Every structure is written in C-alpha cells, then in structure tokens.
Amino acid sequence: MKLSYLWHGLPGHPIHPPLTDAAIGSYTFATAAATAQVLGITSHAGAYGWWIALVFGLIASAGAVLTGFLDWLTITPGTPLKRTATTHALVMATATVFFVLAIIVGHGHYRHGLVGTWPYIFTVVGFGILMIGGWLGGAITYVHGMRVLNLVDEPALKASAPMVTPEKEQA
Predict the structure, then answer these.
(1) 26: exposed, middle or buried (C-beta count within 10 Å: 0-12, 13-18, 19+)?
(2) Do residues 80 and 91 lie in contact, with contact meaning Cβ atoms separated by under 8 Å?
(3) Residue-level pLDDT at 42
(4) What is the reported pLDDT for 135?
(5) Fewer Cβ neighbours under 10 Å: the N or C end of the chain?
(6) How far apart are CA 30 and CA 45, in angstroms?
(7) Residue 132 — φ and ψ, nearest 5°?
(8) What is the rounded CA–CA span in Å between residue 125 and residue 138?
(9) What is the C-alpha to C-alpha distance for residues 24 and 129, in angstroms, rounded to an integer?
(10) Shortest CA distance to 26 belongs to which of 62, 50, 1?
C-alpha cells in the first residue's frame, strides 16, 4: 500500500469524484429548493433547505478541492489533460464564488424563511457554471482517461474490490 492512496485513492478508485458528487448533489438540491421557494411551492421549508444545502455543499467542496488539487499536481505540465484540468478547476472555483455569495447575501433571508432575489440569482448562476465544470470534469475522465483502468475483462468482484491487485497496479 502506498501512502498516496490516502488522498488519491486506490488504482481505478479515485477519491476526488465521490467528493464532487456530494458537493454537486448538495448544490443541485439547493437550486431545486430555492426554486421551489421562489415559485411558492413551499412555505419557508424551501429556503431553509436551500441555505443548509449550500453550506453542506461548500463543506463537501473542501474535500473535493483538496483531492482534486493533489491529483492536478500529478499531471504532466503543458499537456491537453493539464489544460483541461486547469480550466475545470477555474470553472469550479468560479461556481463556488457564486455559491459563497448566495450563502453570505442570503443568510438574512434564510433566517426569515425566504430566498431573496440576489441570493437566488447567485445560486442559479453558480449552478449553471457548476454544470460546465462538471462537463469538463467528465472530459478529464472519459476523454483524457485520467485515473481510468482499461481492465474490461476483470471479473466483477475483483474489479470492485477495495484492494490493490497486481492488474490494477500495472494498469
């Protein structure tokens, strides 16, 4: 076992993507809850869920940023993969700025069970930018193939086992 497995994950099982899933899920829920509140579908509950989900998303983002940065450091400079990963990081940072603005500006509204106009706009814009960042993250994995093992004939139990095998280590 390598020490780097603690922050990079095992071969074929990186840690960064599941952490991004938690953040993206939280921000997606926040956007949906805010929209439900703004449309009058909920009475206060949408605002409470929106703000709490934004805060949880920000916390989850911290782990995603750390593991993503450590993965980014391993990419060869000057490559198309490095350019895509750098763009992905900048886009995700931009989305996070909008979510932080929504948290800060929206806190007073949240305390009264409301989603204000500017906090809602920041949330929706942040979500749109987040989708672009997710698209770029998908390109890193599915186009550039970062951290992907090509073991298509690996038995299912062996492929999903949380252990390092010689095949995974070589790939």
Answers:
(1) buried
(2) no
(3) 92
(4) 97
(5) N
(6) 11
(7) -65, -45
(8) 20
(9) 11
(10) 50
pLDDT of residue 7: 81
Beta bridge partners of 13: 10
- Count of residues in the chain: 171
Contacts of 128 (CB under 8 A, 6+ apart): none
Evaluate whether 7 touches 48 at the Cβ level (below 8 Å).
no
Asked if 170 and 150 count as a contact pair (C-beta separation under 8 A), the reply is: no
- Rounded to whole angstroms, how far apart are CA atoms 164 and 115? 47
For the chain, the C-alpha Rg in angstroms (whole number) is: 19
| pLDDT number for residue 13 | 83
Concatenating the DSSP letter of every residue in the chain gives --TTHHHHEETTEESHHHHHHHHHHHHHHHHHHHHHHHTTSSSSHHHHHHHHHHHHHHHHHHHHHHHHHHHHTTSPTTSHHHHHHHHHHHHHHHHHHHHHHHHHHHHHHHHTT---HHHHHHHHHHHHHHHHHHHHHHIIIIIS-TT----TTS-HHHHHSSS--HHHHH-
Q: What is the pLDDT of residue 80?
A: 97
Q: Which two tokens stand for residue 77?
A: 């400079």
